[in-house]
Design brief:
This protein is of the alpha/beta class and about 290 residues long. α3 links the parallel β3 and β4. The longest helix has 18 residues. Helices cover about 35% and strands about 20% of the residues. The strands form 2 sheets. The protein has a 7-stranded mixed β-sheet. Strands 2-1-3-4-12 form a 5-stranded parallel β-sheet, sandwiched between helices. α4 crosses α5, α4 packs across α8 and α4 packs across α9.
Length: about 290
């Protein structure tokens, strides 16, 4: 029986990126729909649920994508609410690549750091990738300094993560200017820049003197670099004793995780692949 992936995208045009990855992940048939909302998704989900018998439902799966992560989260939740009893299919959410990118960044850092002894500074921490990276790190025992231009937004994000992860060690930091990063200077071992594309978040003169810093990861692929003097191709590149990763340096792992997660959808009919589940898929690839 053919493996069918139903791509539900919140944008008007379904992502060509996600479609190519699905093909490369050995999907037999790909059905792509754009402009999907929680209000109009039910009939599409029912079509996935009721066309094959219970024993064959693992051959059908749903992928939620699109550029707007909040819309993707709402759609992902509505799809799950549509299922009932054993009549459901597996679903993956990776709007704007947020889950696979965060997983790849944290896995890269984990090659060099013991998270239980790590303090991580996340720049752009209130964005979708930053939030997910913070979530993954605190769950593994790291202390996280979550930075944003808005202290209120940073604190709200810290509170939201702390409400879902017991014992989470989080601190909000307002970054109205780079001098405030110096507050974290003595304790930071890891910096992840997950801000908007094309925005320099931290100059080299600010991060290079950090004595405890071991790893920096810049997830911005659009010039200028989010972390100044980190090259987009860096992959554990040693720059003055600090290991650096750029967006493409992390991107190879992100792509492997994305393909592996799509393949995983067809193992059973009851998988819900979100941040933690997708990270675990990436971690299993390293074993």
């Amino acid at each position: 029986m053919k493996k069918i992936l139903i791509q539900l995208d919140t944008d008007a045009q379904p992502s060509t990126f996600d479609r190519v990855v699905a093909v490369d992940a050995d999907v037999d048939e790909l059905m792509s729909y754009g402009g999907i909302t929680p209000e109009n998704v039910e009939s599409l989900v029912h079509g996935a649920m009721f066309t094959r018998g219970p024993q064959d439902l693992h051959h059908t799966a749903i992928f939620v994508g699109g550029s707007n992560v909040k819309q993707g989260e709402s759609l992902f939740q509505r799809i799950q609410e549509t299922f009932f009893g054993p009549v459901h299919v597996s679903v993956m959410m990776d709007s704007n690549g947020s889950n696979t990118t965060a997983a790849a960044a944290v896995l890269a850092a984990g090659k060099h750091l013991d998270f239980s002894e790590t303090t991580a500074l996340i720049l752009g921490g209130t964005g979708p990738v930053g939030q997910r990276a913070a979530q993954l790190l605190v769950k593994r025992g790291a202390n996280v300094i979550l930075a944003s231009r808005s202290e209120e937004r940073a604190q709200a994000t810290c509170d939201a993560i702390a409400n879902t992860i017991e014992g989470a060690q989080l601190k909000a930091l307002s970054l109205k200017d780079h001098k405030q990063i110096e507050e974290a200077n003595r304790e930071t071992n890891l910096i992840i820049a997950a801000g908007a594309a094309g925005v320099k978040l931290i100059p080299a003169a600010c991060w290079k003197p950090m004595k405890q810093l071991k790893v920096v990861i810049d997830l911005n692929a659009v010039p200028p670099a989010g972390i100044e003097e980190v090259d987009v191709m860096d992959k554990a590149t040693d720059r003055d004793g600090i290991l650096c990763y750029g967006a493409i340096g992390v991107g190879g792992t992100k792509m492997k995780i994305h393909k592996a997660a799509v393949r995983k959808l067809f193992e059973t009919n009851d998988l819900i692949l979100d941040t933690e589940e997708i990270y675990q898929i990436g971690a299993d690839l390293k074993k």
